[in-house]
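#struct-pred
JK: can someone run the complex with MRU? inputs below
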Amino acid sequence: MPSPVQNPLRPVWWDASIAPHGALCLIDQTLLPTETVVLTCRTLESVWRAIKTLQVRGAPAIGVAAAYGVIVGLDEASHDDRSWPDTLKKVCDHLATSRPTAVNLFWAIDRMRKSAAGLRGQSWMTARTALLQEAHAIRDEDAAMCRAIGQAGQHLVKSGTGVLTHCNAGALATSEYGTALAVMYTAHEAGRLFKVFVDETRPLLQGSRLTAWELQRAGIDATLICDNMAAVVMREGRVQLVITGADRIAANGDTANKIGTYGVAVLARAHGIPFYVAAPHTTFDLSIPDGKAIPIELRGADELRSVRGQSTAPAGIPVYNPAFDVTPAQYIAGLITDKGLITPVTPENIRRTIGPLAV
Ligand code: MRU
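RT: done, structure tokens with the ligand placed:
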């Protein structure tokens, strides 16, 4: 098995050498940064649970994991030449219940369904081979999109800039390289010197556990702050640019991302700092007019009542725990996509750049 911290850092891959059919492998992101453990998923249920519990997380990465999860589900069921389309439907339906907000999950599952529709009448083996190729293609295309996002946004990160980011939109959240962090990685590779302020990102600490780890590993100057320090670092003039990722972008540019992103965008506006969102075109959902229609995942109370298993609140205290919020388009200076920079953020500019999504 390859080292989980290979270069480039890849959080999700298919290991064909695992008997008897191959298996989906993930870096278990709930254990980072203290432990780097590879999770091997041989059952549909283990893939579903890995997505649900954030062992794999980040919009593009869960799409890639679900695409490979379809193969895991096919392998697990009877290898029957007639019934595989029914099995595939059940597998896809189940994976689609794992998390509701990131549209990349549904995009990847739909793409697997469409590919399967073209294989009806084929043997189980022929279909399985073609579908595994499709999952590899989803992974490879995502990697290429991340590189393109880096190119499209890197000019925004000038030497001497302070950049603030929220959550983790890095390699760990994609197939490799990231979205918001791709912009920073590309600027770094171009030799620019800048500083990144990393929001801790309560409740699950994707900023401190994952983004800080990734940036440190890449040799980028990164400073951790907790979420309630963002206003101060902005007022002290330490931040000139904010870049975050996205889980779903509506047709008008309203953007769902990790809880707390909306607050950061409002703070950036109050301090005259441009706020950008970086995402591949697979994160756009042009079927919904605005952010009101984006389903927001509500997660369990224990994520707020404790930190890493240690109780931090009275037992039984009621909790409200939305995992995402929606930043209205009016706060977003630009959308950095694999198809170029969209600015100003208007429905027309989005439609012109992203167009109807061909799956
Ligand atoms: O709950 P998570 O960790 O899956 O949330 C992830 C985010 O909000 C990311 O910012 C988003 O998915 C973009 S990843 C390139």
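RT: quick notes.
The radius of gyration is 20 Å.
The pocket of MRU is lined by residues 54, 57-60, 102, 167, 169, 173-174, 179, 206, 245-247, 257-258, 323 (CB under 6 Å).
JK: thanks, will look after standup
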